[in-house]
Amino acid sequence: MTLNLIDTHCHLDANAFQQDLTDVLQRAIEIGITRILSIGVSRSSSEAVLQLAAQHPIIAPVVGIHPNYALEAAPDDWDLIREMAQLPAVVAVGETGLDRYWKDVPIDIQQDFFRRHIALAREISKPFIVHCRDAEDDVIALLQEESGGGTSAGVMHSFCGSRRTAELCLEMGLHISFSGMLTYRRNDELRATAATVPLNRLLVETDAPYLAPQPQRGKRNEPAFTAMTNEVLAEIHGISAAEMAEQTTRNARELFLLS
Ligand code: NI
Fold first, then answer.
1. CA distance 25 to 20
2. CATH entry 3.40.1160.10 includes domain 5-256
3. Taking the complete model, does pTM exceed 0.90, yes or no?
């Protein structure tokens, strides 16, 4: 059965896809993926993502500087990200956020870049995509500060936080995107949290080439595997995989204004 699905987060410019991207995209199309958001993590990665999108219409590009790459960004990299973000093809800004797992980039530099991405996204009326690793409280605090009690168009990507964090993100108007982590055996708590997210705020993603879902765990991930996460999310919400695919695809199309 083919589903109507959108992978809202992956990294197709990664070396892991250099040899066989055409096959990877073909497999995605065969299972019913209609769009794939490929996310930049640096200036050069954002440029690469734009190039890929120009070659493959299924790819929707997102540009930004990942918190783990914020220290190595050259002074004019941000100006170029700003320019790229305004291109009509670009559907969102990111990925941005905070990461306390890798200790290489001082948190104040990460916070500075996080704020810049949020401001840029607002300025150009596109959503932003948030990476959060071992930094839930800091991410929430910064988002709350920046939202000033209002709501924002954005995504908590590859969500693995607490139920409370999910609630606070939803209050701020954010969407919550689940990756292959939702399928891992030990992640009962994450599945319980996913059950509390309203259907109209759910998104699915792979974060490929990382985080392959359970049956493929440890191998290279690819957009076609979005179907596995979608299936688990459907089970959690007590609807069919086709219904969940329709729902998450509608959510993605509305949020990212995809054609
Ligand atoms: Ni990512």
1. 9
2. no
3. yes
